[in-house]
Structures are given as C-alpha cells and as structure tokens.
Amino acid sequence: MTGILSELTFWLAAPVWLAMIFAPAWPPTSRLAASPLTVVPVLVVWLVMAIPVAPELWAAVSNPDVDVFRELVATSNGAGAVWAQVIAWDLLIGQWMFLQARRLGIPPLVMGPLLVLTILLSPIGLPVFLLVREAARRRAAATLPG
Questions:
Q1: H/E segment holding residue 39
Q2: What is the pLDDT of residues 69-105, one digit of tens each?
Q3: Judging by beta carbons within 10 Å of its beta carbon (0-12, 13-18, 19+), is residue 78 exposed, middle or buried?
Q4: 97: burial class by Cβ within 10 Å (0-12, 13-18, 19+)?
Q5: Beta carbons within 10 angstroms of residue 98's beta carbon
Q6: Three-state secondary-structure class, residue 65
Q7: Is 115 helix (H, G, I), strand (E, B) or coil?
Q8: Which residue from 22, 30, 80, 91 lies 20 to 30 Å from 115 (Cα-Cα)?
C-alpha cells in the first residue's frame, strides 16, 4: 500500500508541473501556479503515511539526529511521508519560480528546463533560477527610462 501511495504523490503533482512546463501560456496554468492548494492532495497522502509513524516522525523532527532520521526513512511509511513532503515542497518552489518568471518575462524555453531540473534536484534548480531571475531583473532595470 505504501508503494502505491508513494507513486500517487508524484502523479498528484505531475499535472501542475506538466502545465507549467508544456502549457505556460494557457490561462489555467497561471491560476494553478498561483494556488498553494495544489499541494493539498499530496499533503493528504503525507498525512496517511505519517500517522502510522507519528512517534518516529516526531522524534526525527524534534531532535534532529541523522541516526533517528535514518530509522524513520528505513520504514516504508517514514520514507513515503518524507517523499510526499519533498514532492509538496518542490511543487511549491516550482510554482513560485513559474510565477516569478512570468512576472519578469523569462521565456518558457528557459523556464521549462529549469522546472525539470527543479523537479529532479530542487537544491540545484532553485539557485540556478535565482541567478536567472537576478539577470532578468537587471535587464529590466537597464531598459527602464531614466
């Protein structure tokens, strides 16, 4: 059951990612990206997986220790809960990046690969985006009259 739930977390987030990457100009995409509610279904899966390991989860977050965390993720529910949390967090980061890019006029051909990178490795995708965003801000400031 936990394997199915772990896979479900990806499939619950995938439509939002697909819209941001492949249909960035489609009006519903901006509405989806602007809503933090997109992560609610993933967080429901997180809750289902976290409840059975609540004491272990609490131990891992209340007194951070790598060995305690390792014990948590050694269980299927613990690993699944952490996975769902990562999926939800990455989705929120991706949505923020998408909205920032739209506001700054960063082209979809730049953002598509950055969003894919963020899905796969958000600790790399986010800093790369921050550099791209800063370049776009400077370019916009340089073109302002004055």
A1: none
A2: 999 999 999 999 999 999 999 999 999 999 999 999 9
A3: buried
A4: buried
A5: 28
A6: coil
A7: helix
A8: 80
